[in-house]
Design goal:
The complex is a heterodimer of chains A (109) and B (113). Chain A has 109 residues and is mainly β. Chain A is built from no helices and eleven strands. Chain A has strands at residues 4-6, 11-14, 19-25, 32-38, 44-50, 55-57, 60-65, 70-75, 84-91, 97-99, 103-108. In chain A, the strands form two sheets. In chain A, strands 2, 4, 5, 9, 10 and 11 form a six-stranded mixed sheet that branches. In chain A, strands 1-3-8-7-6 form a five-stranded antiparallel sheet, with no helix packed on it. By secondary structure, chain B is mostly beta strands. In chain B, the strands form two sheets. In chain B, strands 2, 4, 5, 6, 9, 10 and 11 form a seven-stranded mixed sheet that branches. In chain B, strands 1-3-8-7 form a four-stranded antiparallel sheet, with no helix packed on it. The radius of gyration of chain B is 13 Å and the shape is globular. Classes of the chains: A mainly beta (109), B mainly beta (113).
């Protein structure tokens, strides 16, 4: 089983819709969790950290489920500018950082 | 804002050339990393460093070496470039024990012909 797995997509979603991605991780000792956003031909940029209590930033909500070993990202009222690849990132106690391969999102007008 | 600067945005080199990719950060981060990113393979760690003159192999170090003579600078060296090293190279930095994630440079798209 891969350390971090994401559905590669693409997810084609109409503007204004709600979209959710999941990311599963295999190591129960994983420590920190993040979602990154990467635009085409650009570097990944931190979107948000993911906490056990869940966290929200505007239209974006991130959740962590340690029992089932997955994290999720929910985007409400999606905008055309949300089109990007979303990378799930997990760090372990030895500071090793594992990237998922990303989920591509296309918001359709 | 942390700034991570990679010296070249696009680079074209010939097979067999020695290639230097430079990364400089301005926020006194201890940890620096070099990744390559390829379609379908995601980000793969080449080398990393937690301190000056310290280096550790990542998952795919073959064909690469690194140098960290100063805290702010981490160089990736392709000793003898090959066509399978054509890729996007990304430098990233963070503090030790940082729960705020990485900051990436804007990347160098290297083509080896």
């Amino acid at each position: 089983r891969k350390e971090v797995e994401q559905d590669p997509g693409p997810f084609n979603v109409p503007e204004g819709a709600t979209v959710a991605f999941n990311c599963t991780y295999s190591n129960s000792a994983s420590q920190s969790f993040f979602w990154y956003r990467q635009d085409c031909r650009k570097e990944p940029k931190l979107l948000m950290s993911v906490y056990s209590s869940g966290n929200e930033d505007g239209r974006f909500t991130a959740q962590l489920n340690r029992a089932s070993q997955y994290i999720s990202l929910l985007i409400r009222d999606s905008k055309l500018s949300d089109s990007a690849t979303y990378l799930c990132v997990v760090t372990k106690r030895d500071d090793k950082i594992i990237f998922g391969k990303g989920t591509r999102l296309h918001i359709l007008p | 804002d942390v700034k991570v600067t990679q010296s070249s945005r696009y680079l074209v080199k010939r097979t067999g050339e020695k290639v230097f990719l430079e990364c400089v950060q301005d926020m006194d981060h201890e940890n620096m990393f070099w990744y390559r990113q390829d379609p379908g393979l995601g980000l793969r760690l080449i080398y990393f460093s937690y301190d000056v003159k310290m280096k550790e192999k990542g998952d795919i170090p073959e064909g690469y070496s690194v140098s960290r003579e100063k805290k702010e600078r981490f160089s990736l060296i392709l000793e003898s470039a090959s066509t399978n090293q054509t890729s996007m190279y990304l430098c990233a930095t963070t503090w030790t024990g940082d729960d705020y994630g990485y900051t990436f440079g804007s990347g160098t798209r290297l083509t080896v012909v």
